[in-house]
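Ticket #4471: structure export looks truncated?
Reporter: QA, pipeline team
Priority: medium

Steps to reproduce: submit the single chain below to the structure queue and open the exported record.
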Amino acid sequence: MTFVERYGAFIVERYREFNQRRPVAGKATLISTIATVLALLVAVAQLMVDVIGETGGHALLPTTLPSVVTEAPSTPEAAPENTPEDTPQDAPEDAPADTPEGTPVDHEEERPAPAPSLPAPLCREWIDAKHAPVLIRPCVTALPNGLAISTQVRSSTPDKPVRVSVWVWSMHHDEALLEAQQYDRTREVATLRHCRLNLTNDEITTCGPFVVTPSTGPGKYAAATSAGTEPDDYPPGWSSSSFTGTQSPAVVISDAP
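Actual output as written to the record:
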């Protein structure tokens, strides 16, 4: 018989004796209860001594516990892992997102081309304009495709602001026309350009440069200019055949543009 079985039988037997000897009520009941409890304690102590003697001092509890098998709670079926073929690869940090990996991108193609620089112009000295309180200085540059014409302007009354109109155009120095004083035929009307300027102090402002193509082909050309106070389409005196404006040094266009 095991220890548990013996101990259970002992408790049942003592409980029955207790019920048989229990008085009805009163003081005798209390004394009887105390005596029964003491008897139970003595009996338990004696039983433990006997068991310890039989086991040689080993623990009263079983040396092994019954194994408990538990099942893991059912979970939804896990999604299959991505294979290397299915897994998206992160793009390298140095490669642009919209270009193939490792393909160099020429950012220079995205930038606007800088404006071509013009050769240094030929300019005449400063001269007083006849119809406006300014000093003017026409300039010209020969280009493969024509001319670059401009006029530098500054106020002749720096103590007050000035608002003026400036015109610039190309003049064809045809020897025969110049000798005949047919100056109106030397003016390239299609190259006439116009600026409306506000001048303060003695700062220099440039009207242009404008790239123009003379219609008369190869030859000698100059830039001509004039200034006035009115915002007209043409400079003062344009209708006169003797009007030439203030001209720059001449340059030569050798080939037709």
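Status: closed, not a bug. The export was complete when the record was re-opened. Leaving a note from the reviewer for reference: The chain has two domains: 3-55, 122-253.
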